Amino acid sequence: MDQIVLIFGLVVVVIILAHSIKIVNEYERAVVFRLGRLLGAKGPGIFFIIPIVDKFIKVDLRTIVIDLEKQNVITKDNVSVGVDAVVYYRIENPESAIVKVENFHDATVLRSETTIRDILGQVELDELLAQRDLLGKKVQEILDEATEQWGIKVSAVTIKDVSLPDTMKRAMAKQAEAEREKRSRIIMADGELKAAEMMKRAADQYAQSPMAMKLREFQTLTEIAREKNLIIISPGSSISPPSSTGAIDSTIGISAGIATKIAKDTLKPKEEDNIEKNKSNTAE
Fold first, then answer.
1. For residue 212, what pLDDT is reported?
2. Which of 147, 162, 212, 269 qualifies as a cystine partner to 152, CB 3.0-4.6 A?
3. Is 117 exposed, middle or buried, given 0-12, 13-18 or 19+ CB atoms closer than 10 A?
């Protein structure tokens, strides 16, 4: 009988020890309640509780990532966009995370969505597209301040995508095209201004040296003469004094004769071709 009692006692002790010894990992903490009252956070490693009397809740201290659902935001300039964001947070005070809020994860998610809509609704679309990092940092600071009382530290908020309606995409494409056209015209106008300034300087230099102007004229004629099918006629005033009208008249006469000869040489082969065609048609 005594042996049975002893064995029964040993079994009870083993069962109590089995339910009393608890282990939590390095990245976890156990928030212990005794008869409903908070005792504190235990861990990491091994700790003991009193069965039936004590109850504990494990809390993960690692960084938790929340991929928020796409939020429909109306910006300050009344443009409806869809925003995808990611929130990173971790628990710094396990006791507050369990005692001060019913479900710290759901509370953090809902608070994040509300804060993102509030902050992004206060800026214009251009600012939202150009300053994602600054807006994400601003949201992170507000969230961190709001969740500090829950023992939660929001380490970062990242805006990963901004979805625009198709009509807005087309309007932005037209705006970008207009900006590029504006820049190209400004560059062309600046080039024309610089070219005009250089030409004015060159004209002043030629005015001071008439021989340089004559040499430049000869150089231009030389470049034009590379084309074999051109006839270059130099004005009489460039060869003789302006008072010698005979030279000008002779130059005009030579030009007219050359033009007449070129016209005859051009039309003669065509007339011969027409005669040959008529002969062949008559023979047939």
1. 77
2. 147
3. middle
User: What pLDDT is stored for residue 149 in this prediction?
Assistant: 93
pLDDT computed for residue 256 by the predictor: 42
**DSSP code, position 11:** H
| Burial class of residue 135 (count of CB atoms within 10 Å of its CB; 0-12, 13-18, 19+) | buried
Q: What does 130-170 look like in DSSP terms, one character per residue? A: H-HHHHHHHHHHHHHHHHGGGTEEEEEEEEEEEE--HHHHH
Domains of the chain, first to last: 2-60 (no CATH), 64-164 (3.30.479.30), 210-283 (no CATH)
Q: How does pLDDT run across 90-119, given as a tens digit for each residue?
A: 999 999 999 999 999 999 999 999 999 999
Distance of CA 223 to the CA centre of its chain: 49
Cβ neighbors of 32 (< 8 A, separation 6 or more) are 38, 39, 40, 41, 42, 47, 49, 54, 55, 56
Tokens 């030009």 correspond to what residue?
255
23, HSE (Cβ side, Cα atoms, 13 Å): 3
> What distance in Å separates the CA atoms of residue 121 and residue 100, rounded to the nearest whole number?
30
Q: State how far the alpha carbon of 4 is from the alpha carbons of 17, 67, 219, in Å.
A: 20, 59, 129
The rounded distance, in Å, linking the Cα atoms of 237 and 254 is 15
Closest-CA residue to 139 (of 162, 163, 155)? 155
CA distances from 22 to 13, 53, 55, 95 (A): 16, 14, 11, 18
Spatial distance between the Cα atoms of 263 and 255, rounded to a whole number of angstroms = 12
Token reading at 116: 């993102």
pTM for this structure?
A: 0.61
